[in-house]
Amino acid sequence: MYKKILVALENSSSDEPMLGHVRKLARMTGGEVLLLHVADGWAARNFNQLKLAESEEIRADKEYLQGCAETFQREGLQAGWQLAMGNPPQEILRVAGASRCDLIVMASHGHKAVGDVIFGSTIPKVRHNTTVPILVVHGGKPGK
After folding, report:
1. Quick check: is 123 in a domain?
2. Does 20 map to a domain?
3. pTM for the full predicted model
4. Sheet strands side by side (includes 103-108)
5. In this structure, is residue 87 part of a structural domain?
6. Is 144 a domain residue?
């Protein structure tokens, strides 16, 4: 069914409910999991152009991704990770295409229209620009 599952992580509390669903799905399908975080701060967006050194945030993101992947692997699941830098919707779409993912999993926080403007609109931007199925898992309210 799903051979390669891209999981867009935020490095926040909303990741854990989503990762629980992905574990079950990967076990059921035997699919490989690709854990992705898109660093989108100023340093990340200008990293290559300005030849910047890795920031503490980038190092922490890499450690987080590696730890999540190792947890999946200890449970007998195929998992890799990738840290992308830049615009989250664009990078999610780019990585999903380049990696030939056949499912994208993302966390929702239950925002409504105004909340999307304030807190971001990654899911709609990805949804409107891909033909890959998307699973949206409620990750709880931000910060909870």
Report:
1. yes
2. yes
3. 0.85
4. 79-85, 32-39, 4-9, 103-108, 134-138
5. yes
6. no
